Inverse folding.
């Protein structure tokens, strides 16, 4: 069996195993990573600024869904590389960096700013992405695949079906309402978060 054939075989098995999960389990798994990402952002920025930072999400709740989205995308695309940490490292760094770039471009178009700022770091592109953070994402990706993913999966599966369904529905409804309200207020200019710590206001040329 060639390397490509082996990859395709492992990829199919990985996707099938993940999609065998019940939808409510996937939703809870997704939000676990989104909440984890929120607290990770708060800890890192608090360490960098030497003061407590507790607001790092687009919404009011403690949730950064870009982490859930990246975790979901990585699980469905690059999990077959889990036996090769070097390739896995670069794949994770690439995916997370692309996610930052695309998200920032969208936020700039909508709000004239984005929710982080790498402008003071070396080898950065318009404060959106930088080499230091991309390397960090690679290590976060390794931690995700080798430790966090399995732990969160077991945590999700420990919850009985009915409570798990209630939790999934509650998290989904609360997030949709929170996101909708925040989106409306920011598009209407009723509040501005671009002046917050670790957020970068940009001009139209970006």
């Amino acid at each position: 069996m060639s390397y490509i054939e082996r990859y395709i075989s492992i990829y199919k098995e990985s996707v099938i195993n993940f999609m065998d999960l019940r939808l409510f389990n996937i939703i809870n798994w997704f939000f676990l990573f989104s909440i984890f990402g929120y607290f990770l952002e708060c800890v890192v920025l608090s360490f960098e600024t030497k003061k407590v930072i507790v607001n790092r999400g687009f919404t009011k709740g403690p949730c950064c869904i870009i982490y859930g989205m990246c975790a979901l995308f990585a699980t469905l695309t690059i999990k077959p590389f889990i036996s090769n940490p070097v390739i896995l490292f670069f794949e994770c760094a690439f995916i997370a960096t692309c996610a930052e770039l695309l998200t920032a471009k969208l936020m700039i178009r909508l709000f004239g700013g984005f929710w982080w700022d790498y402008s003071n770091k070396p080898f950065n592109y318009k404060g959106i992405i930088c080499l230091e953070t991309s390397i960090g994402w690679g290590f976060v990706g390794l931690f995700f695949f080798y430790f966090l993913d399995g732990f969160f999966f077991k945590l999700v599966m420990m919850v009985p079906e009915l409570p798990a369904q209630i939790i999934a529905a509650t998290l989904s409804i609360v997030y949709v309402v929170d996101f909708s309200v925040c989106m409306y207020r920011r598009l209407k200019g009723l509040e501005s978060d671009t002046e917050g710590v670790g957020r970068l206001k940009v001009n139209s040329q970006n």
